[in-house]
Amino acid sequence: MRGPITSGAILLAGVFVFLKFILPLFTAPLPASLIYLYMTLAFSGIMLYGTMSASSLESLMGPVFRFLSGEGQSGTGKLARLAVLVLFPLLVGWQTYTSLAPSDLPPGENRTIHPAPPGEFVGLANPYQNNEANINMGKGLYAAYCSPCHGANYDGKGPAAKGFNPPPANFADPGTIAQLQESYLFWRIKKGGVGLPVEAMPWKSAMPRWEVELPDEFIWKIIMGEYDGAHQSPRTWEEDD
Amino acid sequence: MKSANYIQESNVKTLLEKMPTIFKWVSFLSVLLLPVIALAAGADTKAMSVEYRDVPGIGSRNLVWIVAQQHLLLAGFVLGVPIFGWVCEIVGWKTKEARYDKLAKEFTKLLTSAYATTALFGGILLFLLIGLYPKLMAYLTDMFFPSFLVYCLLFLAETATLYMYWYGWDYMQGNKKAFHLFLGFLLNLFAIGIMIVPNSWATFQASPVVVADGDAWTRAWMAMQNPTWWPVNIHRLIANVVLGGFIVGAYAGIRYLLAVSREEREHYDWMGYVGNFIGVFGMLPLPFAGYWLMREVYQYNQQMGITLMGGFLAWLFILQAMLIGVLFLGANYYFWMGITYRIPGSENSYKKPIMAMLVVLLLCLGVWMTPHTLVASLAEAQKMGGTHHPLLGVFGVMSAKMTVANIMILVTFMSFIMYWRAGKQETAGWAKAAKAIMNGLLAIAAIAVIVLGVWGYFVPAIIRINYFSVAQVLIVGFIMVTFTPLTALLLKSAKTTTEMVWGKMPIRAGYCLVLNAVMVILLMSLMGYARSSSRVHWHIYGVMRDTSEYAFSPALGYAAAFMSLNTFVYCLLVAFIFWVATLGDKAKAQQAQAAVADAPGGAPAMAGGAPSSGENFESGILENHK
Asked: Per-residue pLDDT for B547 more than 50?
């Protein structure tokens, strides 16, 4: 019969193994920040459940308190307690040191992917009718100018995509253009990576500034083609749109 | 008479003893305000040509930030408490149970103490705004002056009603109770007016509307009716109830920890339960109100919407998820502890459902807290192909967040239903069928909410926002509206198998109530910063630009420090106010203490005095600590 401490430890270890080693077998590895977040939740759950009643509290924390108090301990038990009391502060110290010590690693990515657009682009509506001719023209322009990076399937996997970090946006993902209004895309295409505002630092987008090559008409039609090709709809406030 | 004199003498004595502390506080506040006083003394008469004044050291914006946040938090408490205080009084009047009337009176006692401080901070805020931001205030005065007058009238009416309501409590019993309840209704009516009028000024700053020509009243009325006015009104109204409930719960928690007599323990245990219940009750519709507000913000201005939800303020919503998550967990944890401690012998019967609820809550919280853009090192980002995780990235958008919020609300509601039904055996012939239907409905509701959430990824945003999200809310609302009366009906004829015992909760229950209050204060401070910062470098969005030296948004880390400071200061203020409010009780308590000193368990709960089924162990832990 396992006690709650053993069960809790097994559960925590299981969650960690799943997140760190099993999940990456099927998808990309999780960043440490996310693993830490989920582990914290799992630990909180164990503590909450273990302290729900007097008897569960006794089962979970009783042995811990008795071990730490040293009451009636001798021999190995006493040594183990001494080791914990010495090693635990050292562990905390080591953790503090490693988190504060200078490192040659670049800092964690914390970039604002979707910064707010400048005022002049807010509320712009696509001036071209959403019909087959315009969409097809947009798709053609997309194939010529955008698909090398964003892919013929609008999934961000164009032939040139591997050369970029961060990779080109995947328009088929419901978390990208489907969350945005057309005017936002107009701004991003027109001004490109160099037109990103300060809040989006560090500027790491290789998106060209298309306003120097394409007229506004082409950009609006490319937007139509993108949405249609990726099977997404722009965010609107009127259902008729 | 002798007793009354004793209490008065005791109060005076206590006050005299505390004088050095009070003196320190007054000195501290004076020092804090010195720069402002000095500045006012040196101010020139060119008021109209001055756009800004600054306060040396702390800076004008930071000072206004602190004072405005304190005023808002105090006001939230003062406007939230009368709502449930009044409801509690009605319950007492209807059920003829004196304890509800006593509780309502205790709520109102806290309210009267906090009222003056709220007004004081409102006054300080007004003076600071007039002095430090004269140009902005001149504009707002020009736009809203008639509403200022309405506000003053409402304030007078609220103050007069509160005096009558509080001081007339004992007098207006019996056949005068109906009039007292009417006063309570008026108190709430004026309070809501006091909230919504200034809300219109603040929301106008965030979402101004074009105001056509007309007389001053017409212009003010048009400006008041801006797109975010009613969403903010509703959101704040509910949030005030949540804040009030959890603060009252924290008050009860502390009093419970300090209680020496069994009667006190039972009373404050029950009061803590009521406070937690009120907080949870308000928390259930709050996410929906917040969703409506954000929808209006997005629709009003895409730039502002993205700044909040996708731009540099987006991380605040991950912090918000964490704070709300802790609140949900804390509130449920308190319910669950209530079952295991107040209903002796029930622990084993509820182990499995409690574990299932906890697991669902944690899974939902995991989804809610997963950011769209992950914090990753360069190597991690390269492996993921960017800062969006290909699998877990789907948790980062609204469809997922809305779904898990609904599920968490559903679980919390069921947690309350479980608590309500604990220790009772339904005897109605149709009980089995009713319970089966309820279980079936609950399962269908949960599945429907999840299906709509997943489907939301494959439809245009407007369909998701206008129909799917609304449908999810309606499904959860339907469960609440049908289950509550059905459970009440079931329990009407139920047999009590185990009597609920009050005053047996462990000390961590008291701390849990305090934690919930701290979380809700932090949450309101966080959202205060978000709402204000969404205007970025504008005093009035798109109309009046901030040209002061503070025309930038504070960094998130800096802002987080201020939020913590505001929470700390507010907790100190509330502690001070409650301490003053309960000075009279202390003399009574001293008398009571003498009487119960020899009684079993006659020590504060904090010192292990609260007996429980696990008394030996918990006392043991404390003993070991000693």
From this structure: yes
Please tell me the distance from the alpha carbon of residue B76 to that of residue B522, in angstroms, as a whole number.
13
pLDDT in tens, B253-268: 999 999 988 998 999 9
pLDDT number for residue B5: 46
Lowest average pLDDT, out of A102-111, A154-163, B407-416, goes to A102-111
Domain boundaries, chain B: 594-625
Tell me how crowded residue B474 is: count the other CB atoms within 10 A of its CB: 12
Q: Phi and psi dihedrals of B376, rounded to 5?
A: -145, 150
**Which chain B residues are closer than 8 Å to A108 by Cβ?**
375-377
- Sign of torsion over alpha carbons B276, B281, B282, B285: positive
ipTM summary value:
0.86
Flag if B366 and A41 touch (Cβ within 8 Å).
yes
| CA–CA min distance A85, chain B (Å) | 16
Query: Among all chains, which residue has been given the structure tokens 């919020």?
Result: B405
Q: Strands B495-496 and B424-425, how do they pair?
A: antiparallel
Q: How far apart are the first and last CA of chain A?
A: 63
pLDDT, position A174: 84
Give the Cα separation of B563 and B530 in Å (integer): 11
Cα(A26)–Cα(A49) distance, integer angstroms: 31
pTM above 0.90, yes or no: no
User: Chain B residues with CB inside 8 Å of A20's CB?
Assistant: none
Q: What is the mean pLDDT of chain B?
A: 86
**Chain A residues closer than 8 Å to B459 by CB:** 233
| Least CB–CB distance from B617: residue in A42, A58, A116 | A58
- Residue B539 has phi, psi (to 5 degrees) of -75, -50
Among A122-131, B60-69, B347-356, B614-623, top mean pLDDT goes to B60-69
- Whether residues A233 and B460 touch (CB distance < 8 A) is answered with yes
Pick from A33, A57, A119: CB nearest B303 = A119
| Residue B485, SS3 per DSSP | helix
Chain A residues close to B324, C-beta within 8 Å: none
Q: How many CA atoms does the CB half-sphere of B210 hold within 13 Å? A: 1
Residues of chain B with C-beta less than 8 angstroms from the C-beta of A23: 391
Please give, rounded to a whole number of angstroms, the shortest distance from the CA of B173 to a CA of chain A.
42
> How many angstroms separate the CA atoms of B504 and B344, rounded?
10
The DSSP output letter for B514 is H
Chain B hits for A118, Cβ within 8 Å: 303
Q: H or E stretch including B496?
A: strand B495-496
| Subunit contact A111:B387, Cβ cutoff 8 A | yes
3-state SS class at B538 = strand
Identify the residue among B388, B391, B401 best suited for mutation to test binding to A, counting A beta carbons within 10 A and taking the highest: B388
pLDDT in tens, B431-453: 899 999 999 999 999 999 999 99
Task: Name the more confident of B615 and B592.
Answer: B592
Cβ neighbours around B320 below 10 Å, total? 18
Minimal Cα distance from B383: which residue of A?
A28
Q: Which pLDDT band holds residue B384 (cuts at 50, 70, 90)?
A: confident
Query: pLDDT tens-digit profile of B467-512?
Result: 999 999 999 999 999 999 999 999 988 888 888 899 999 999 999 9
Is residue B189 over pLDDT 70? yes
Cβ burial B32-47 (10 Å sphere, 16+ → b, else e):
eeeebeebeeeeeeee
| Domains detected in chain A | 4-100 (no CATH), 119-229 (1.10.760.10)
Question: What percent of chain A lies above the pLDDT cut of 90?
Answer: 61
B496 forms bridges with which residues in the sheet?
B424
Q: How far apart are CA B524 and CA B520, in angstroms?
A: 6
DSSP state of B483: H
Within 10 Å of residue B146's Cβ, how many Cβ atoms? 16
Mean pLDDT of B122-140: 95
